[in-house]
Amino acid sequence: MVLSSTIAPRSKVTELTDDTKYDSLNLEQKKKAWPMERHRSAEVSQAILSKIGHDGFQLCHQPQIPEIVKGGCTPISSCDPSGEFTADSNGMHRHTITDAAWEALKQSIVYFKGQPIGTLAAIDKSQAELNYDQVFMRDFVPSALAFLMKGEPTIVKNFLVETARLQSREKMVDLFKLGQGVMPASFKVHHSHPTKKTETLLADFGEIAIGRVAPVDSGLWWIFLLRAYTKYTRDSSLAESPHCQRAMRLILKLWLSEGFDTSPALLCADGCSMIDRRMGIYGYPLEIQALFFMALRCALSLLKDSDDDFVYQITKRIKALSYHLHSYYWLDFQRLNDIYRYKTEEYSQTALNKFNVIPESIPDWIFDFMPSRGGYFIGNVSPARMDFRWFCLGNFIAILSCLATGEQAEAILDLVEERWKELIGEMPLKICYPAMENQEWQIVTGCDPKNTRWSYHNGGSWPVLLWLLVAVSVKLGRPHIARDAVELMERRLAKDDFPEYYDGKTGRYIGKQSRKFQTWSVAGYLVAKMLLDDPSNLRAVSLEDDGHIREPVLKRSNSCPALHISH
C-alpha cells in the first residue's frame, strides 16, 4: 500500500536514502528480534482492537504481525513477583488499565524496512490525520522510556540511528537553508514503489509544520534520549559511534554559536517546543532553557574525551546558564515582594531591576497564587517582560537535571501540593497556569480557536505530563504525591480512550479537539507506573547533582523555606 502524501508534496520534505542494508525478516525472525511476553487478556485486546481497527496501520507498519499486534505483554507494574494479579481492591482495575495501555502502545509501533523505528503520535482514526500519523521526536520520548524500562531497547536504538541520519540531510524553508544541527520535528515512512516494497523516510524540519517553526527542542530531546538509552542498557557503543558523535557535535555547534545575545539562554520563536502554537513563549522560554541545561549535562557524559573544545564550551555555558536562571527566573514569596518594590530606569552595573521590569505589569493573579511555602521558575524573562505563568515541563525538567537546588526542588513540589486544585484538578496535569482569556487571548494567541481558555496549550490538562510529576516525586522521596496523581488519572484515562488532553479549569472534560489513543498519553501513564513500582528506573531520566557548576551566592529567605538570589 502506498502512503498518502496529503500532508505535504514530495518536494517540500526531506527524504532519507537507504544508507544501510536491511534484510527482510520473516515472521519467525521478527518474533526473535522483538521478544515480548504475551498475555491472554482477550477482553482488553478485543476492546482496543475494536476501537482502533486493524486496517489503519497498514500505512506506516510492516504487514500485520498478529503475534506482536494482538499479543501485547504482561505489564510489570500490575503483577507481584510471582506474576499474579495484585490483591488490593483496585488491583484488577489497574491491571486492566495497564493492559490496555500496553496494547495501545504496541499498536502504535511504526516499522521501517523490517525494523521497529518509532511510534505514531496517535492511532485515532475517527478524525482527519493532519500529522498525527507521523513519528514525532518529543512524542516518542515517553514511548522510548517505556520500552527501555520494559527491557526492549531495539526500537529506541533504531530511532536514534535513523534520526541522526535524517539530521544530515539538507533542510530548506523557501530559499533559506536551516542549520546542519537541526533535528527533525517528525518523520513518516513512505512507500514509493508498492511492488518493489521500497521504503524511505520523509522528515519535517518545520518547513511543512503549522506556523513553519523549526523545532528547537528536538535536538535537546535527542541527546536526552541517547543518554537514557546508554544509561539503561549500559551500552556506550551507540553513543560512541561516529554518527552519534557527529550528530551531537552538530547540535552543540548550533547551540553554542556566538551572536548578539547578552544572555546564555537560547533565543526562540513562538511555537518551537511542546507548545507548538502561538502562546506568547517567544524569547527565552523556561521549557527550552531547562531542556538546554539537561542536554548540555547529558552531552558532557556522552562526548568522547577528544572533544576538549566542546567540553570547555559546555562547562562554561552550564555555569552561565545556571547563574542566569537562578538569578532571574526563580520566584518565591520573598522574591515576588522584591519585584513588587522594584525601582525602574536604573542605569548602572549595580542595578537590581536589570531588565527594567515595570512593577505595574505584574498580573493580579500571581499575588493570590503564590503561597508562603513554595516557589517555581517563571516562564520567561526578557527586556521589560517577566512571564509569571507556571509551566509544568520546564519546572520538572529543572528538578530532574539538578538545575534546581535541593531546596528549590522541594519548594516546587510544595507549590504543587499547595495549589493541587489549580495544577492537578480532576485530571493531571496543567501544561501551564493560568489560562489567557478575553483580550489577552486575542492579542497573544491571535484568536487561536484551538487555544481558547483552559484548552489545549492554554491551561489544558495533559496526561503525558504525569511521568514527569511521578519522576520528580520519586526523586525527592515524596511518592505519595505521585500515587495520588496516578490514582486520580486511573479513574478516567482508559475509560476515555487515552485522550491527548482535557479541557476546563480542573480538567474535567475531554479536549474539544483531543485525539483518542494519543500515544504519549498511553506511554506517559506506563512510565509513571514503572517509576512508582521500581524507583531504580529513575536512573534513565534523572541526573545526579553536580554542585561545582553553580556560582551564584544563595541565601535563605526569612519568610519562606525556598531560596532566592542575592543580586
TrEMBL record:
Catalyses which reaction(s): Hydrolysis of terminal non-reducing beta-D-fructofuranoside residues in beta-D-fructofuranosides
GO biological process: sucrose catabolic process
EC number from the UniProt entry: 3.2.1.26
Molecular-function GO terms, alphabetical: endo-alpha-N-acetylgalactosaminidase activity; sucrose alpha-glucosidase activity
EC top class, as a word: hydrolase
Keyword Hydrolase: yes
This protein's UniProt keywords: Carbohydrate metabolism, Glycosidase, Hydrolase
Pfam families in alphabetical order: Glyco_hydro_100 (PF12899)
InterPro entries (UniProt xref): 6-hairpin_glycosidase_sf, 6hp_glycosidase-like_sf, Glyco_hydro_100
Homology family: Belongs to the glycosyl hydrolase 100 family.
Function summary: Invertase that cleaves sucrose into glucose and fructose.
Protein name: Alkaline/neutral invertase
